Every structure is written in C-alpha cells, then in structure tokens.
C-alpha cells in the first residue's frame, strides 16, 4: 500500500518488534506498541487505520478501550478497516472439529470472544462509527484452494503444533495421538473441501466528531 501511495505516510505497529529493515518504502515507519495500553499518538491524527488479525488474540475486556483509541486517533471522516478470520468453518472434517472445539475452550480460558469478528458489524455503531460495510471471502483449504489453500493448511498445522501444550490440556490425548490428529487435519482439508471465511469490515468516524 505504501508503494502505491508514495505521497502518503504509513506507520506500522505490532507488539513484537520484528519489522523489516531494508525492504520497506521510505514513507513507512514501524513502532513496537502494546495496543492494550493505548496508542501513542495525538487525537485526530490518521486518515485510515488498517487492523489485521488482532481480535483473535485480544481478551474481550480490552475491546471497548481499543475501539475508543481507534476513534480517538482517526481524523473526522477517517476510515477504519478490520480484517480477521470469521469463526465459522465450512465442511470441517473430524480432526478439524476437534481442533475447533479445543480452540473455543482455549479462547474462553483466555477471555477472548471467539465470535467477535462475526459480531463486529453490530458492535461498531455502539462506538459512534457510521457507514459500516462488511464483506467476506471464502478460501478453501488444501488442494481445492490451490497454492494459497495448501499454504493455509501448513500454517494452521504449524499453529496447532505450536499450541500443542495449550490445547492438549483440554483432553487426555498423548503426544503421539495429537501429532496424528494434525496429520489427519492436513489430509481431511482436501478430502472434505474444508473452507474458512475471511471477514473485512469498514467503518467511518463521523466528520463532525473531533476528539
């Protein structure tokens, strides 16, 4: 995006300071920020805020504060875009259903609303956002999804293995059985034509709202 709009300035933030050093356009800067502690910028600063894959990691108790921060730093008439996984799966196989249920249990334990992205279009008006628009895109996992679908399977399998200790506590599954479940998930994704939906929601800060 920064390359397509060279006259604009872009700032990227993440809680982990693993940013590109030599491969980003000159109109881009990065900063390590814990968003649950607030955004270190003055009010009415940004024309556009793009948020990706945040709310699958944030406990629900911080959500109201975070959206107030988005509204604060947006200029009047500025736009917010939120992109994240929708909680619904299409045609999950038996192994994926097990992981899906374990994920829900893990989210509940960590105070994360598993279904928040599905609720977002109804949530935004409560924070005075207007012109709310939501769109979704379905992506198939495995062979039917092509290169992207096969990459998603490998990424999800890697996540399941990384979270092995966290997810295993919700069952009496041995390490061997857990690893086999991951392999079953990889095979089933193509066999069952499993798919997920990516949700993208847009909303505007009112032009007469100066914070």
UniProtKB/TrEMBL annotation:
Q: What is this protein called?
A: 11846_t:CDS:1
**Domain Methyltransferase, residue spans:** 25-78
- Highest taxon listed in the record's lineage: Eukaryota
Pfam families cross-referenced by the UniProt entry: Methyltransf_25
